[in-house]
Amino acid sequence: MVFSLFSGRYFPDPGKPLMNVSGIWASVSIVMVLMLTPLTKLKPLRFISRYRRFVGLTACLYAFLHLFIYLVLFAGLSWSWISSDLVEKPYIYAGVLALLILLVLAVTSTKKMMKRLGRNWKPVHRFVYFAALAVIAHLWWQVKSDITIAMWFSVFLVPLLVLRLDQFSFLKKPSFKSKKSLR
Ligand code: HEM
Asked: How many CA atoms are closer than 13 Å to the CA of 4, on its beta-carbon side?
């Protein structure tokens, strides 16, 4: 992105292509992070679980770059411009939600935070699925005529989300033990 910018490839209007590329890389990283869990279930691929944090942080980094480009190149750091843009483009709220979730996950991804959160760490990190849903909303909401990007990311993200539905305890069927205790 930096090379393309300085080689003049994106001129005269670098904002739009840079927004596009940063957003696409952030979304690709989310797809990759969601893919890692099912892949690590395969014995020969177990080792890739060590890259989960790296890929998650990459998603967060690109999402922040996307925000930075929006604030500087799109909005020119004008808060009045941003507030009128927020009225025009409500899909930005879905993007902000995804970004905030990614930020919380990045901050709580250290070993120290893992220890501090204990049993709560996993439920907190399941919020990555809500981030993926927010990204899908962000992409479809902004579609005008070209559905290519929204469609391709949905093709990857939706099956990965469906595959992990069992991770949400409120969707889980009561286990044998809990059925017994209900009686
Ligand atoms: C503060 C958070 C965010 C803001 C303000 C924001 C804003 C925007 C805006 C204004 C566009 C349209 C750009 C244009 O007109 O060409 C856009 C596109 C895009 N955003 Fe975001 N976004 C945010 C978060 C995210 C996140 C977290 C992701 C993915 C993980 C993402 C992925 C994308 C993608 C892939 C596009 C291109 C869509 C297309 O061209 O069809 N955005 N975003």
From this structure: 11
How many whole angstroms separate alpha carbon 52 and alpha carbon 102?
Answer: 13
What are the domain boundaries of the chain? 2-182
Determine the distance separating the centroid of ligand 1 and the alpha carbon of 154, expressed in angstroms.
15
Token code pair at residue 124: 């907190």
pLDDT tens per residue across all 183 residues of the chain: 989 989 999 988 999 999 999 999 999 999 999 999 899 999 999 999 999 999 999 999 999 999 999 999 999 999 999 999 999 999 999 999 999 999 999 999 999 999 999 999 999 999 999 999 999 999 999 999 999 999 999 999 999 999 988 777 654 555 554 444 443
Residue 59 amino acid letter: A
* Ligand 1 pocket residues where CB is under 6 Å: 16, 19-20, 23-24, 26-27, 30, 63, 66-67, 70, 89, 92, 95-96, 98-99, 135, 138-139, 142, 149
- Angle at the Cα of 18 from the Cα atoms of 7 and 16, rounded to 5 degrees: 110
Q: Report the C-alpha gap between 15 and 177 in whole angstroms.
A: 56
